[in-house]
Amino acid sequence: MRKLILFGALLLIVGTSSGLAQERKLSAYAIGFYNLENLFDTEHDEGHNDYEYLPDGRNKWTQMKYTHKLRNMARVLAEMGTDKLPYGCAAIGVSEVENARCLTDLCEQEPLKARGFKFCHIEGPDHRGVDCGLLYNPSQFSVRDVKLVPYIYKLPQDSARATRGFLVVSGTLAGEHVTIVVNHLPSRFASSYYREEGGSQLRVVKDSLQRDDPNVKLFIMGDMNDDPRDRSMAVALGARRDMSEVEEGGLYNPWWKIHDSGTGTLMYNGAWNLFDQIILSRNLLDLTGKKEYKTLTLFQPQIFRRDYLFQQEGKYKGNTKRTHAGGVWLDGYSDHLPTLVYLVKAQQ
After folding, report:
1. CA nearest 224: which of 248, 263, 246, 196?
2. How high is the pLDDT of residue 23?
3. Angstrom distance (rounded) from CA 67 to CA 75
4. I want to staple 26 with a disulfide (CB 3.0 to 4.6 A). Which of 163, 169, 176, 344 is the partner?
5. In the structure, what pLDDT confidence band is assigned to residue 13 with cuts at 50, 70 and 90?
6. β-bridge pairing 324-325 and 239-240
7. What share of the chain is helix, strand, coil (3-state, %, to 5)?
8. At what angle do helices 63-79 and 100-107 cross, to 10 degrees?
9. In terms of pTM, does the model score above 0.90?
């Protein structure tokens, strides 16, 4: 029987082989995603429909509320991954961020500043002005390249529309080439076609990255606005439910089985959806079951949960505690829960 004990920066695997105890040390890392639910500053960005998040807007978005929102987001981001690793995540993709100023202010919050967190961001074309970004701890993850691949509307009637694209960040983690693609697919106010189109475009991005480097370790993450079994993920992107189904160059979706168990990352009409997914390339999987971990390997996915992220009383008890609900400021967090994956690699 193998036992796995996680402590500090290391995993210690204790196994048996022909009756003899063996020990190996592994380095451990975490990569996460979190929809920050409307992290807006208090100033108008020209050309964007951000009026509800101004001091005189519908949400009366004052500097005090913005400061509280930053503090709350930083608390969650800093705690992600600490159930197993005291230093938390190496990188965290985020969505629903208005601009670089918000990310600058976020990284200045004490729990993130103490770890030296930095960010990647490229201003996108979304009409509300919300973008995706990547926060990272430079002591663990170093950035090589950042680009924004646009989401392309293909139907003639959509020629004037624009939404957030795919933020592609290439870097180095544990001495290996890693690329993280952060995205936020069109909402469910739009038909499934637009999310399926997003899945197809993500597959094109994936294929391009793998042509450039067949050995790149890929993490495709974001608020997909669909569950793992929906066509955008399972067919258009081609992310598989079981490791054994993942073809060469293919993708694995560890959240499919988790959602099948009845849990998720956001609740609608009393049922859980799991929109917040981190999908992994085949070369991050232990397909042999030998647990050799010679390169970065998926250890475990996790939905990050804390009591403070949920409504504790009232009509919506058990739901996520949002910033606003029913026009009332709750001083909460997000309508989504964060997700993360733990990775391991044998030390040389």
Report:
1. 196
2. 61
3. 12
4. 344
5. very low
6. unpaired
7. 20, 35, 45
8. 60
9. yes
